[in-house]
Amino acid sequence: MTVVDTPPTTLREATIPPDGMYEGARVLRRLPEGWEERPYERFEVAPLGRVIGAEIRGLDLSRPLEPALREELNRALLEWKVLFFRAQHLTSEQQRGFARNWGELETNPLLAAGSSEDVVRFDKASGATPTFENVWHTDVTFRTRPALGAVLQLREVPPVGGDTMWADMAAAYDNLPAEVKERVDGATAVHDVIPGFVRFYGPERLAPFQEMFPPVEHPVVRTHPETGRRMLFVNTSFTTRITGMEREESDRLLSFLCRQAHVPEYQVRFHWQPGDIAFWDNRATQHYAVNDYAPHRRVAERVAIEGDRPF
Length: 311
Prior knowledge:
The chain is 19% helix and 23% strand. By secondary structure, the chain is an alpha+beta fold. The strands form four sheets. Strands 1, 2, 3, 4, 5, 6, 14 and 16 form an eight-stranded mixed sheet that branches. Strand 2, helix 1 and strand 3 (82-85) form a beta-alpha-beta unit. The longest helix has 14 residues, at 67-80.
């Protein structure tokens, strides 16, 4: 008589770390609910990601934008969150002129200026200060009115590396567990300039800016002023705590929320060539400049557009 062992029907005890990132299907919704998707008539759009990132072909950004073209580009920006334009080779003045189609330009006294105070120049050679590379962040959320967007052009590209990545924070919000959404909807968080720059500058450099940029509060989940979409609006560089929470609870929740930008399904990665332009919606995204090109040089210029107060 053969005896067949019956496999056990109970599993051994196992503990999963809380607030982990788990496998499984994700909601990948590029457009807001009810948004009418229409063809583009004035340029070609080549998607680079499922929910974020598209290359725009057939435009010369050195030429003035007619109102209809500006409106169609704005729709593309809202729908794709970051737009890429190859081999534009704009002068700084042309780059500023393109950005001004979306509003007044912003200055940043903490970063090196290019040809004018509203052009930031990132000249990264061996030994240069590694400002805002290798960290997911949204630009200048320490301001009362963080930037609407930014136009970045690569002047000099290393032979290998130096890519930039962007993450869609609307997709990040869509995929939060229901219990986390309940905790963060309606919550506010403190944003501060000091932690974002103390990694690069000493107290004597930063102290004059403490009064210029006092800590501000923004919603943890902001509403896009043009699409109405809900988006996570916290980041590792500038968000220090969630208002009204004990420090331990705030740190744990912020860590979980900031890790959402790390999910590949929400990302696009762009490999630069000289003269390429990226134009991104700073309200809806985070970005990450990959510093993997030492000892080579990488030179970029950025123009930022003034934004509104998050709500």
